[in-house]
Design a protein that fits this description.
By secondary structure, the protein is of the alpha+beta class. Helix content is 55%, strand content 7%. A 4-stranded antiparallel β-sheet has the order 1-2-3-4. It is flat.
């Protein structure tokens, strides 16, 4: 990754790295590096990120994930309920996330193609709910009460998703208003024959959003994987 190797890491960047790792310890150093690069335009090497984690007393992503696996499985009914809610987390192509699909009058509606409809609620133009309603989020968190390591992990992933979808909605609204923004389809075509660093400012903005959206998709998949592993682990056999 382009970066600042060989140079002192700025205090703000170090604080960002520690906060990103503390917010979700299952994030890998590579994922944190991408977040830093998107926010600062460069990032230290992975060993430096790992060093900051150790100094802050934050476990490695692998250790954090293994700790999650020590949580007790849910009942079959609760597991099915959580899985049903997680199935609502679909990821349409970002070009298909547009405010024109929403019932703006009540601030509630859906976005995306028919096969991947995403529920959203707006407060004005600010996205406040996405995929799940506030009631569904509360129900899911209650279902994970005995899996306390998974609660903050889900909360972090969900909040990250709301933020990136909100930013994509704003970006696509700029396209609809003719502000010169580049669509994600146009961006991907450009990347077939151009390096990211050669892109213009509008394309760079779309590129950063694309990276954040794909990173969110990976973190969502990781949460689903860890959740499934906690449920598929054999229960201990108690002595009779």
């Amino acid at each position: 990754m382009p970066g600042i190797q060989g140079k002192p890491v700025p205090p703000k960047m170090k604080a960002f790295i520690i906060e990103a790792a503390r917010d979700n310890p299952t994030r890998t150093n590579a994922d944190i590096g991408k977040m830093v690069e998107e926010s600062f335009g460069g990032a230290p090497d992975l060993s430096t990120i790992a060093k900051f984690r150790r100094e802050a007393g934050i476990p490695s992503s692998r250790k954090a994930a293994s700790q999650v696996l020590t949580t007790p499985p849910l009942t079959s009914e609760k597991k099915d309920y959580v899985q049903k809610l997680l199935e609502k987390f679909t990821l349409p192509h970002p070009d298909q996330l547009r405010l024109t699909d929403v019932i703006i009058g009540v601030g509630e509606g859906t976005i995306g193609p028919q096969s991947k409809k995403v529920y959203i609620r707006l407060d004005g133009l600010k996205l406040t709910e996405c995929w799940l309603s506030a009631v569904e989020v509360k129900s899911l968190m209650n279902a994970l009460t005995k899996m306390q390591d998974l609660q903050p992990m889900f909360s972090s992933v969900h909040e990250q998703g709301i933020k990136i979808v909100g930013d994509i909605l704003g970006h696509n609204q700029g396209i609809d208003f003719g502000n010169g923004e580049s669509s994600f389809g146009e961006l991907l075509q450009l990347l077939e024959s151009n390096k990211p660093e050669s892109l213009g400012p509008f394309e760079q903005h779309a590129y950063r959003l694309w990276n954040r959206y794909t990173t969110f998709g990976k973190e969502l998949s990781e949460f689903r994987r860890i959740f499934e592993e906690t449920q598929s682990r054999p229960r201990p056999v108690l002595p009779s």
